[in-house]
Design a protein that fits this description.
The chain has 361 residues and is mostly helical. The protein has 14 helices and five strands.
Length: 361
């Protein structure tokens, strides 16, 4: 019989798992890449959102206290964005021990060569200038991410485009575990794995904007590159950042370029008035409208999106313990689900010596 905490009763809704590593505040790239999908699916899915604080240590091992602060900051961003703790579960990775145990088991099912062929891993080594100095934990990170996901046996995983290689590895490991320990035919389809295996083979869902360019017009939006507009920015900060978006245009009367111009990428992403956008683009191409007017309108659009978030953030800040309460309740729920998954996995492996239940104090 499954062990559950209050609030973890079975639901007919398909389960969804996704989350973020706490490396700083969330920005517009996170919003269109994944958070927007999370908000839309709260009513149709049983949603679990992980704050993967342990993963942050792969490049910030000496900054654990800052990672703790960022963990609370990310949770605040979730709630301000509209994640509803009565309909969704927000939890802290380090407080769910079943994830670490599953990481160990999954590490036995995936080879070093396969890890190093993951383009996301290779890109991070380059972009973060790790060279050969990265810790062993950096290579455990993608395996841990597999455990983050499969611990909750989700049907879908909303992610940004750059995370697709991680999801593909997760799918491979789910199939391999089911074939190795649950007797599922290695050639079976994904539906068969869901029916007869321990783990379903989850589907990735990419946001409507897979990769949002930064305000510099060169790189993906990122805190480290100082090219991000944050969900927590004030109206003045948004206007200032929109004003410095790089368009490459030399004069307001020059014919403007649309393709590859972050100004128009943002209008396409956030301005719901498509007729207005089409008209502005045409005038921009003809040199009849300057960057300043287009940037001012963009700031208005983005601020309209962020204003409700600012109101929710103010309410959270008026009750400093509110975020901690949400995290405590959510982590208790997450432990109930993850422990059940771990028991199913150990049972399939013949490691089902004793059951346990994790309780938070």
């Amino acid at each position: 019989m499954a062990m559950t905490e209050p609030g973890t009763e079975q639901t007919d809704r398909p389960r969804l798992l996704t989350g973020d590593t706490p490396t700083g505040r969330l920005h517009l790239g996170h919003y269109v890449g994944s958070i927007e999908n999370r908000l839309a699916q709260q009513g149709s899915h049983d949603c679990y959102f992980i704050i993967a604080n342990t993963h942050a240590l792969t490049t910030r091992a000496a900054e654990s206290h800052a990672v703790r602060d960022d963990t609370v900051s990310i949770a605040t961003d979730y709630l301000a964005a509209g994640i509803d703790p009565d309909r969704s579960t927000i939890f802290i990775q380090s407080e769910v021990p079943a994830i670490a145990e599953l990481t160990w088991f999954f590490a036995m099912l995936i080879g070093y060569g396969r890890l190093m062929r993951n383009p996301t891993v290779k890109d991070e080594i380059v972009t973060k200038e790790l060279g050969d100095s990265y810790p062993f934990g950096f290579l455990m990170y993608p395996v841990g991410q597999i455990a983050d996901i499969l611990a909750f046996r989700p049907a879908v995983v909303p992610v940004g485009e750059d995370q697709l290689p991680h999801i593909e590895m997760t799918r491979e490991v789910a199939r391999r575990f089911n074939s190795t320990y649950a007797g599922v035919d290695p050639q079976a389809g994904d539906k068969q794995h869901a029916a007869d295996g321990v783990f379903p083979v989850p589907e990735a869902v990419v946001g409507r904007v897979g990769r949002l360019i930064g305000t510099d017009g060169k790189n993906k939006m990122s805190k480290s590159l100082d090219n991000a507009i944050y969900l927590s920015d004030t109206a003045k900060q948004v206007a200032k950042k929109c004003n410095r978006i790089f368009t490459g245009r030399m004069s307001p009367t020059d014919p403007g370029k649309i393709e590859g111009n972050p100004l128009w990428d943002y209008h396409d992403a956030f301005n719901g008035d498509k007729t207005e956008v089409a008209d502005m683009k045409q005038r921009y191409r003809e040199g009849k409208i300057g960057d300043g007017d287009c940037k001012k309108r963009l700031a208005e659009v983005i601020n309209a999106l962020l204003e409700p978030m600012r109101g929710r953030r103010a309410a959270l800040e008026s009750d400093p313990d509110s975020v901690t309460r949400v995290l405590h309740t959510g982590t208790a729920r997450a432990n109930a689900v993850a422990e059940e998954t771990l028991w199913l996995a150990k049972s399939a492996m013949g490691f089902d010596f004793f059951r346990r239940q994790v309780r938070l104090s």
